[in-house]
Amino acid sequence: MLKFILKKLLMIIPMLLLISMIVFFGLQMTGVDPINFMVSPETLSANANNVEALRESLGLNDPLIVQYFHWLGNCLHGDFGYSFDGSAIASIIAVRMPYTFELAGYSLVLSAIIGIGIGIISAIRQNGIIDYVGRVLAVLGQAIPQFLVGIILIQFFSIKLGLFPSGNRVSPEATNTFVDAFVHLFLPVLTLTIGMVAVLMRYARNTMLDVLNSDYIKTARSKGIPEWKVYLKHGFRNAMKPVLVILVFRIPMLVGGSVVIESVFSYPGIGLTMTNAITSGDYPVVLVTTLIIAAVMLICSFMVDVFNALLDPRVRLGE
Amino acid sequence: MSDSTTVSIKNQNKSAASSLLKKNIRKFMNNKLALFGLIVVVIMTVACVVGMIVGVDYNTPNLTALKTPPGGEHILGTDTIGRDLWARVLYGGCYSIFIGVFCAVMSSVIGAILGAISGYFGGKIDQLIIRISEIFQAFPQLVLVMMLVAIVNKRGLSNLLVIFVLTGWMTTFRMVRNEFMSLKGETYVKVCEAFGMKKSRIMFNQILPNVMSPIIVSTTTNVAFFILQEAALSFIGLGVADSTPTWGNILNAAKSVSVVTNQWWVWVFPGLAISLFVLAINFLGDGLRDVLDAKQQ
């Protein structure tokens, strides 16, 4: 088992290298000259020499391969370079990363509890009232685009009722940081949770139904095991595996969803940083944020494998 | 003698298959939500396609009627620069539905083929394909879209299609692979192998039909997924170019607070169109699942 985990863990490194290469060279191919974003056209034509010196000092004149390894070497030393407006990327990340983790983390925990809970209950009480209401909500939550949910929530809670701010993460005049965080996180977390719950609920219900229809459940019942034990020990445990896999699988989508939601709520996390960097052509920031998101997704994928191996011995023995 | 028996067995199989089909259709018809989904999907698709063929005018601004509320000459009103919203929703529907269906079908095809190969052969090939799928999985879609947009130098429909298919096949792949891994141990596969049947025939003619139901269901729900994905990308301004209306592109107007508060119809109608279509697709997928899943029969 340890060997299996180690092997999977080591696989992440070459993958990250490959991805960093693809992004690095891909971004070079876009042909956007970063100089254009730093210097006004007039200065560009007037001070050709200085601009050339700037290029040289930024390392933009080196061959691509050299630039790549230079950048990679710096990254490994924890020096992620500077964004084109001069601030250190490491410090940008240090500030914004926790914001995104907060957003995604709260949504994940909340939606896991609500989604799996309702899903399991509606499978056990199939066609009951919870099942019916849950299905309607799940279907609605899945049908309405997430950003639209965000807009509707903003429209309702912040414009009409004025209960919550429509964006940002901290307000400067906040006295109670806890209340401030809660108030700012409420709408974005709610938006992300609605989307996640819809998927999880549906999935948990379907998986649980599958399990409850299988023969070993009938066997368990016919042995006279109490109903709740059948559901919990025989049903729930077997239904958990695919649900957990989907849950972990959903984390990358949560990260992706938070990119969009951060832009709806102008929430200053990694996603908004990346979107802004992409539109302004800020290469160094795009590179680092992409790698971070890719690393998060690889780790999730690794967790799916480990979960699978823990729950199903065939997987790890097959390796 | 032997000839007639084979014929009769064939006929029997045929009639059995058709009665199963009939049974399935009846079962589907009894599922009201699924039927509702099918009807809505068909009506909306037909309406959009008819709108496109008739050639509704979605692009010419009516400068005398900017931001008109629904009613009168413009059924759904006009947007901020006076374009007829009804025409735009119809036309946008064509693009949105096309994007959804095309990407879902293509990614299912790729996922199924790779999943079959990976699951059936196992070993090194399996490892390789899994690694590739993980790389694609790990790649942020947003950056891929942006890179391709920048390289091709225009925000086109084809960019989006390529990206969606490239980044969308992994879930089907995993599912088909896992099914294949458990199915390849079944007796009928062993029998086929013992008969010396070609591997490709075993994979695609013998095992794949048994995996078809989940593939069909996931393709249906993927249509909805891709439509939503396109809408999200267009909403943050990285999707299809503004000149091509899609439901997401029309919704892009809702980025401005004044539109959200004052011109509700500009975002409510395309929003309703997306939600209704996705809803219907999901009902349809659920219904198909209930009909096709042999375990529940």
Query: Quick one: CATH superfamily of chain B?
Result: MetI-like
Q: Determine the CATH topology of chain B.
A: MetI-like fold
CATH class of the largest domain in chain A: Mainly Alpha
Structural class of chain A: mainly alpha
**Over all CA atoms, what is the radius of gyration of chain A?**
24 Å
Structural class of chain B: mainly alpha
How many helical stretches of chain A?
Answer: 14
| Counted beta strands of chain A | 0
Task: Show the largest interface.
Answer: A-B, 50 and 43 residues
The largest sheet of chain A, given as strand count, sense and whether it forms a barrel, is: none
How large a portion of the residues of chain B is in β-strands, by DSSP E? under 5%
Domain count of chain B? 1
Uncertain runs of chain A with pLDDT below 50, 5 residues or more? Answer: none
CA(first)-CA(last) distance of chain B: 37 Å
Which terms summarize this structure?
heterodimer; A: 319 residues; mainly alpha; MetI-like fold; 2 domains; 14 helices; B: 297 residues; 12 helices; 77% helix; globular
